[in-house]
Amino acid sequence: MGEIALLVLEGPWWTPAHKPKRPSVLPFQEGLEKYKGNFNIYYSNFYEKQSFKRALEDDLAHAREDRLFLYIAAHGGSRMVGALEAEGGKTLTSGMRLTTLLRDVRRVARNANIEGVLLGSCTLGANRADLLATLKTSPLAWIFGYACEIDWIPSTLIDLSLLEHAMALKKEDLRSRTKIIGAFSSALSRFSGEFPICKEENRSVPLKYAISLLGKPRRPHAVPGDLTRALLGTLGWDAA
Questions:
Q1: Full-prediction pTM beyond 0.70?
Q2: What is the DSSP secondary structure assignment for residue 125, as one 8-state letter?
Q3: Which residues in the chain land under pLDDT 50?
């Protein structure tokens, strides 16, 4: 068994009537697992706060690896996670509040070596104060998210690259703000900062304005900070 594990918690994206084959991020991550061969995947579904808590606890109960990474992939909107609507706008699942999700993540992170959290959801990355508060009260080294309504396939491919590079960091690298930023810069350099990943109110938002990286190096007296601007600068995406 490897020393690294990726915990994938996924909410439903579409109803069977809308997309009968029920697309999932799991095959993408399984492809990376087979290609790299140096980490294991634990996968669960969730629908609301109780099933999220159970899925997170179950995955952690089975994981025996020393280094854990958490990938939460679900619909996001404002400060809600996992809500699902049928055609016609009828709400099927109400999802859960972002603050509830982060509270559960903080609770388990204090007892499990979760190094970072990738939020593969629309808009959740815009709630930077909530994400910084989570870093402040947990041993997490980083949280990444998107600040607008993202397209599914492009964001899933970006998530794949981000996780590949984040999992390649060494334990001692997490002490360095520069090395954390460097890993995310390398992952994102495969893409164009000008790519219109978000579409909101008839306008497109390029990737460089759609990302949020928050971090807290694992060293004494480190404080959490918003690393987004430094990340954009490293990528050369910071021009107005």
A1: yes
A2: G
A3: 1
